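Late entry, evening session. Most of the bench is empty. Finally got around to the prediction I had been postponing all week. Sequence below, unchanged from the version circulated by S.P.
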Amino acid sequence: NFESGSKVWHSMTSSSQSQSQSTQSASSKQNNNDDDDSRALSQQMSESLQLNDDTQQSPPKQTAFEYLCVMYILRIRHHSLIEWRQHLAIASDFKHLFDEKTVTQLHCEIDEETPISSQCIEAIFIDRFQKGFIAEKTSFKYLLQCYERCNEFFQRIGRYWSGVIAQSEQTRCVQHIQNCILTFCGILLTTPDLTTTQDFMQSHDEFLRILSSPPKGRDFPTHFLSKLFEQIEDDVISEVLDKPMSTIKQHSMHPMRNTFSTAINALIKL
């Protein structure tokens, strides 16, 4: 009986030890799993915090300059001025060009979904053209004013007005904006669907009015005409010059003292 009981006890002890070892092993595995989960969670939190830090970092100088340059030249803004303030803190030289009051009063508000960037000029113009041109009277006059602000910017760059980015990068940015303005001028004068019928006709009248004005009086910005015609395809250039050429022909066939100068002025500029 003793031997039988001893065997049973040893069997129970072994079973108990085996269960204890199994429990310890399971507990150890559970602890290891918990440690792995904790490390994974800690890593995720660290990456999340790092991502938030990256998101909250100030934009680079190049982005700030282009944002403010486009905003100033094209006279546009978003409803929220938070991004404008962030960029202005980086490129502080722009504080001399516009403050919050002038931005709110003079700049046309475009959709928040339209990025203010030199790479999105087309989207900006499409959005801007839908807002109308009450202050500028016509879209052509608005584009001329934008072109002139580009010329003013080139002069500032020549005077080393800002060192936020290299002069060559400043020039490249403004030149790209000006080329886009010229392209849209050509599209405007040849594409009635871009704007309203009234604005299309008034823009052509504005073009003719400036073309026929005395050279020393009202004139196009420097090099505007030559660069404009470079942007317009040969098969549609007649649409731009049809009215001016008809006016020149009419005044040349029936010259009068008060109208002949109109034809001469247009010929000189062309």
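Two things to note before I forget:
Confidence is low (pLDDT under 50) at residues 1-24, 45-56.
DSSP finds eleven helices and two strands in the chain.
Will write this up properly tomorrow.
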